[in-house]
Amino acid sequence: xxxxxxxxxLMLESQDxxxxxxxxxxxxxxxxxxxxxxxxxQEMITELSPDVICFAYIDRMRDDALFEQVFGLNNGRVxxxxxAIDLFHVRTIVAPSKTFHKLDAIIAPIKHExxxxxxxxxxxxxxxxxxxxxxxxxxxxxxxxxxKKYDILYYGNNFFELSTNSNVVDDEYYRGSIRxxxxxxxxxxxxxxxLFSSSSDRFRVKILKPRTTHNATIRNVELSxxxxxxxLAIATCSRSDYLMDKYLEIAASGxxxxxxxPSDYRDLFEDKIVEVxxxxxxxxxxxxxxxxxxxxxxxxxxxxxxSYTITSRHNYTVMTGEFLSIMNQLSTKQLSxxxxxxxxxxxHTSELQSPDHLV
Length: 359
Prior knowledge:
Blueprint: E1 2-6, H1 8-12, H2 17-28, E2 32-36, H3 43-48, E3 52-57, H4 64-74, E4 80-84, H5 90-94, E5 105-108, H6 113-122, E6 127-130, E7 150-154, H7 168-176, H8 187-197, E8 205-207, H9 220-228, E9 230-234, H10 245-252, E10 256-259, H11 266-269, E11 274-275, H12 282-294, H13 296-313, H14 316-330
């Protein structure tokens, strides 16, 4: 069996999407047990006799004392891995941890070869895996066929101060950036927020007050409805060139994306979003968006095409299969026969039919 130990901080954020994914694995897979670190008892290692132990954290190994205890109790018997949503904090948080050198593996939530290669260079003896996507709950974020009231929707945080180079991508960012957005983790998102906030004379713009995932007042179903009422919503890949949840939420909800493409996902988004880049001037960005909105039929076909791909290939069912595959690779035993994946009967790929082509 697989024992997932999640930090209290993570699980207390009941609306956190990473929490949803861990709870889904616990609920839908026999052979997976999820516990909070505060509920961990040393007897559990003997009682549960796990084949793999997986720490589920947001961005760091926050509990070195607990980790040391688990490593000691395990005594090398079974593999121990870390699955964290924000592994881009390579140099500042994860690698400096006292127990990082004891891990058998890390699991990244997305494809990101440059950052994963940095982990491989730091720990050549450690296995480095990644899931193909952050994945999205398509029972929450889905096409609703609502009337389009807005041209552009903005939601989410637009400033997170991060003044140190956390990874190799940050190195590139700092070499090429200038203030005032130099230390902002979301520099391009902030620029687009400012630009479209002042463009209500050209577009029907809906701006939600900037919030983090944890304090947003509009989320989940209500957010998906608002996205479905919008032609376009803003998603950028941050200065670490990361696939963010917004890309998947927007597309699954039947809304188009304005933003740049994460490098490792260009094959997914190229020609399917209204792509704008930090190298474009404000006038170039506005003109490009106006052009996209001028042909609603073509824009709708692009929205439908990406929505179909996201809902059929980036859902929680696919996530579960990938997670179990990695656990099988990690374990010294063949685990597949010990799992009985219970399909999510209410989870459907999409009401959309697969588009024949993108026009």
